[in-house]
């Protein structure tokens, strides 16, 4: 399996947190970034790194073949089920082939982003910063979502967001929504008969 790397870097979190991470904190931060990056990729159903993929895909009406990873950087080969090369041209998010709509082709292609989009980097970095900040609230790590302290006539109440209870490295609702916006969606197949 290809190492897909982190979607945000330590420097991104340091810029948001306004401090440097060293020693155990740096190791924890790298682990949190790794988990958040994996969670974001899983939710988005995208890798974001440039990788080579091979997929067997159905040809839709008009010869369109939808590719599950994008943006497509290069198409290396397209072959039919008999191993014959198929002529193609690249579209945004897919290819068009000279083949009937009931057939299948195997496409080998490179797809992904040269750089992780800034909005994703910042969302992952912010989630990592929040996860590390919650680590400092002992009661949140034990599952408490609200804590009130009272001294004389003064009181202080601390509320912890439900996604942060337990001190877990989890994507925020906003990060989940962003990840879902990067999902590649496709309508059903188009079948044409002669």
Q: In summary, what is this structure?
A:
The protein is of the alpha+beta class.
Please give a structural write-up:
- Helix 1 packs across helix 3.
- It is elongated and about 80 Å long.
- A hairpin with a 2-residue loop joins strand 4 and strand 5.
- It has 2 domains: 105 residues, no CATH class; 61 residues, no CATH class.
- It has a 3-stranded antiparallel sheet with strand order 1-6-3, with no helix packed on it. Strands 2-5-4 form a 3-stranded antiparallel sheet, with no helix packed on it. The chain has a two-stranded antiparallel ribbon with strand order 7-8.
- The protein is of the alpha+beta class and 194 residues long.
- The two termini are 42 Å apart.
- The protein is built from 5 helices and 8 strands, in the order H-H-E-E-E-E-E-E-H-H-E-E-H.
- The model has no long low-confidence stretch (mean pLDDT 85).
SSE layout and pairing:
Elements: H1 10-17, H2 23-44, E1 51-58, E2 64-66, E3 72-80, E4 88-91, E5 94-97, E6 104-111, H3 118-135, H4 138-141, E7 146-151, E8 154-159, H5 173-181
Antiparallel strand pairs: 1-6, 2-5, 3-6, 4-5, 7-8
Helix pairs in contact: 1-3, 2-3, 2-5, 3-5
Strand order of the largest sheet: 1-6-3
Whole-angstrom Rg = 23 Å
Oligomer: single chain
Beta-strand segment tally: 8
Looking at this protein, list some descriptive labels.
194 residues; alpha+beta; 2 domains; three-stranded antiparallel beta sheet; 5 helices; 8 strands
């Amino acid at each position: 399996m290809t190492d897909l790397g982190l979607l945000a870097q330590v420097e991104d979190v340091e810029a948001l947190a306004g401090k440097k991470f060293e020693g155990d904190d740096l190791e924890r931060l790298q682990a949190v970034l790794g988990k958040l990056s994996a969670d974001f990729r899983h939710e988005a159903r995208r890798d974001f790194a440039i990788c080579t993929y091979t997929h067997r895909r159905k040809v839709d009406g008009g010869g369109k073949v939808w590719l599950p990873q994008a943006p497509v950087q290069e198409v290396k080969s397209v072959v039919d089920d008999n191993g014959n090369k198929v002529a193609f041209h690249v579209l945004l998010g897919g290819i068009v082939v000279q083949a009937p709509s009931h057939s299948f082709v195997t496409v080998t292609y490179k797809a992904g982003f040269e750089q992780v989009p800034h909005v994703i980097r910042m969302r992952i970095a912010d989630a990592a910063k929040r996860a590390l900040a919650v680590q400092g609230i002992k009661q949140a790590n034990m599952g408490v979502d609200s804590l009130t302290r009272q001294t004389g006539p003064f009181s202080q109440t601390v509320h912890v967001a439900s996604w942060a209870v337990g001190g877990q490295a989890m994507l925020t609702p906003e990060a989940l929504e962003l990840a879902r916006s990067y999902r590649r969606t496709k309508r059903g197949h188009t079948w044409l008969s002669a």
